[in-house]
Design goal:
rod-shaped
Length: about 110
């Protein structure tokens, strides 16, 4: 009976040693860390895709408005090209530039009473 028990314990010890070596060789802990990093990367990419989808929807809406509204279209073109529309005056103020001196204008003559 004692001999059978020793044999059983020896087999269990050998099996435990082989299981440990297999676990170490396969690097289960490293694989779990890699798996968690990959899950985090996938989640980050999902958030990025949602953000890009939102931006795409906004751009599509803007294009739709530009196609249907000529006033909006003209405003965007003028904004991009810095043009003025008909009968519009545009004053551009540049920082650092000295203002041009204004000519002296005489006071209007007052009529005699």
């Amino acid at each position: 009976m004692l001999k059978g028990l020793l044999k059983f314990l020896l087999v269990c010890a050998v099996a435990a040693g082989l299981a440990y070596l297999y676990h170490r060789h396969r690097d289960f802990n490293g694989r779990m860390e890699t798996l968690e990093q990959n899950r985090q990367a996938v989640e980050d990419l999902r958030r990025e895709v949602q953000d890009l989808q939102h931006r795409l929807n906004e751009a599509s809406e803007r294009v739709r408005r530009l196609e249907s509204d000529p006033v909006e279209r003209a405003a965007v073109v003028r904004q991009m090209r810095k043009f003025a529309g008909e009968e519009e005056k545009v004053f551009r103020m540049e920082e650092g530039a000295a203002p041009a001196p204004l000519p002296a204008v005489p006071a209007p003559a007052q009529p005699a009473p």
